């Protein structure tokens, strides 16, 4: 659905408030269909972002797992390798 929203759970270090806010912004943009709202919708757009971010933070903080935490650098390297293979010229 939202390709720009990345998994934020079970990372070391944990997801930052900025990462959660960015994911919430992408989610609200996707739902509303607006990249940036009109002046008339600006307040409700901002409120939706804050509500989604708060719910996301609560979710991430409440989830439990026995799996080892993932590391951003390792996951980013894996993603770069997948993209290199995916977009390699044949």
Structure overview:
The chain is mostly helical and 90 residues long. It is built from 3 helices and 2 strands, in the order βααβα. The chain has helices at 17-32, 42-62, 72-86, and strands at residues 11-12, 70-71. A two-stranded parallel sheet has the order 1-2. Helix 1 packs across helix 2. The two termini are 29 Å apart.
Order of strands across the widest beta sheet? 1-2
Q: Which percent range fits the helix content?
A: 55-70%
DSSP strand content? under 5%
Unreliable runs, pLDDT <50, ≥5 residues? Answer: none
Would you count the extended β strands for me? 2
Shape estimate: flat
Structural class: mainly alpha
H/I helix tally: 3
Could you tell me the mean pLDDT?
Answer: 91
Tell me the series of helices and strands, N- to C-terminal. Answer: EHHEH
What can be said about the biggest beta sheet? 2 strands, parallel
N- to C-terminal distance: 29 Å
Radius of gyration: 16 Å
What characteristics describe this protein?
single chain, 90 residues, mainly alpha, 3 helices, 2 strands
Question: What is the element layout, followed by pairings?
Answer:
Layout: E1 11-12, H1 17-32, H2 42-62, E2 70-71, H3 72-86
Parallel strand pairs: 1-2
